[in-house]
Amino acid sequence: xxxxxxxxxxxxxxxxxxxxxxxxxxxxxxxxxxxxxxxxxxxxxxxxxxxxxxxxxxxxxxxxxxxxxxxxxxxxxxxxxxxxxxxxxxxxxxxxxxxxxxxxxxxxxxxxxxxxxxxxxxxxxxxxxxxxxxxxxxxxxxxxxxxxxxxxxxxxxxxxxxxxxxxxxxxxxxxxxxxxxxxxxxxxxxxxxxxxxxxxxxxxxxxxxxxxxxxxxxxxxxxxxxxxxxxxxxxxxxxxxxxxxxxxxxxxxxxxxxxxxxxxxxxxxxxxxxxxxxxxxxxxxxxxxxxxxxxxxxxxxxxxxxxxxxxxxxxxxxxxxxxxxxxxxxxxxxxxxxxxxxxxxxxxxxxxxxxxxxxxxxxxxxxxxxxxxxxxxxxxxxxxxxxxxxxxxxxxxxxxxxxxxxxxxxx
Length: 411
Hints:
The chain is mainly alpha-helical. It has 20 helices and no strands. The chain has helices at residues 5-12, 17-20, 22-44, 47-63, 65-71, 74-100, 108-116, 119-134, 143-148, 151-184, 203-212, 214-235, 237-245, 249-273, 279-299, 303-316, 319-328, 335-344, 348-363, 370-410. The relative contact order is 0.15. One of its GO terms (molecular function) is fucose:proton symporter activity.
């Protein structure tokens, strides 16, 4: 539901693209700020405690949309989004490694992809709610027409629009409370006795090991650019669709809905493909395809550009869980803190859309898709790096085995 808010607030409060992009800055900035506290919770208590804490904070943030709609101030909405996303940050840091701990290490990345394949169900529901409850209730008056309204008339228009924004968020808060109660009473599938609950949590040593791990460091960087690319693509989908087709916000919302449906289907397809293709290789291929599609969008706006825009979601479907899984592979006791670092990398979704928004204000939305194209190239580089790293380790292991076996074979 959050991606359409950039366009919604831009219209309601008559702001530039850069100002309205602060929605994503507040949302994804919270992921950066709350990931380390989430790691403390997981190490000191358990993954389940982290999940419950995250759900509680997310529900509180969603409930804050009601007072925000009454005060009718942009800053209050940003605060509500920050609290909501802070809860989701804790949830992300806890739930992802929780899923990876539910089975053997070899299939952890594929298992995480399968679990996250259900996330787009919520994504589609969120876009549907925005498209049916928020976008159609925006007053179609232009910025000039709003400026000509009296103070009382403008307040009435903005109040009705913000009520439409508030309703689905408060409804979602109620759903989150129900989910919190359900999880609180369900027995954890992971044996809590295996969790590390030591009073002395040696974060310093974990930090040093993680910083020395080049494979992990590059994974965090790749996740930063991956989330940045994803946020850039979806945040400005409505603006691109309006520019390419000449439609309105509702038409742009439908294009975003199509993208989410493609994302949903592709999550399951990519999970199946991973049975036959190494995850990092698939990541590299899809990243390069996504970069090419972004270039197509900048060169051929119109039907072809819209088709390329929707197709990017198929490429995006595997990126987050795949980077997450291969970056955490082999971290052992540092996994919980490592998971926090990867969630902090979601900060890319706060920063990179600001660059794209500035480019939109200066040159238009079509050209701005060069920003996610560059991000996808970095993600593809991480896939290639992982492939080469593992091939090198395999060669080294094979050479060591040959050296050990030679005396025996000569005898």
